[in-house]
Design a protein that fits this description.
By secondary structure, this protein is mainly beta. It folds into two domains: 3-95, Beta Barrel (Elongation Factor Tu (Ef-tu), domain 3), CATH 2.40.30; 107-167, Roll (SH3 type barrels), CATH 2.30.30. Helix content is 5%, strand content 44%. The protein has two helices and 14 strands, in the order βββββββαβαββββββ. It starts with a strand and ends in a 10-residue tail after the last strand.
Length: 177
């Protein structure tokens, strides 16, 4: 069961609902920002293809291992119902996220920031973030694509107010056109 909510609430996309798990109607979840305390979230939302967010009542998220989670839905009786949720985005409302210490950011706050290197060259815009196992990467898209490690030696300044991130990254260190 999915209940409707208004569209004025600020929703944060945290991941994607994956394939069904087991016979009871649960789903795997791919969570993108591993810094968010996922298992403490009490209200989950699903984004449908029409971009509308709807509350998923009574669901919980269970941590399995590493960065693997399950969406437990007591309203589903079998995996056919779980299959209907596969590939939908899952998220929360912004007010459910705890405040972070100064200098720390949620991934969704970095998406869309202009990325400028220390030589004042505009490299592009943060299109997404990913984790390569060693650290997080800013995927900056412009004329070229840059995978920039999110580490103190490279990230010089983040300004949400100015919508930009300053990096110590050469213009010619791109992935591909």
């Amino acid at each position: 069961m999915v209940s409707s909510i208004g569209t004025q609430v600020d929703h944060i996309e945290l991941g994607k609902i994956g394939r069904p798990h087991g016979l009871a109607g649960d789903n795997h979840i791919e969570i993108w920002d591993h810094h968010i305390p996922i298992t403490s979230v009490t209200r989950w939302y699903i984004q449908h293809t029409n971009q509308q967010w709807q509350h998923l009542p009574e669901v919980t998220v269970q941590h399995c291992y590493d960065h693997h989670y399950l969406l437990i839905n007591p309203n589903h009786e079998d995996r056919t119902q779980a299959q209907a949720l596969t590939n939908h985005m899952i998220g929360v409302t912004r007010n459910q996220l705890p405040s972070l210490p100064k200098g720390s950011y949620y991934w969704h706050d970095l998406i869309g920031l202009a990325t400028i290197n220390i030589d004042h060259v505009h490299l592009g815009t943060v299109g997404e973030l990913m984790n390569n196992g060693a650290h997080d990467l800013l995927v900056v898209k412009g004329q070229y694509t840059y995978n920039i490690p999110y580490v103190d030696a490279i990230i010089k300044q983040v300004s949400l107010a100015n919508r930009q991130v300053i990096v110590d990254w050469p213009q010619d260190a791109h992935c591909h056109a």
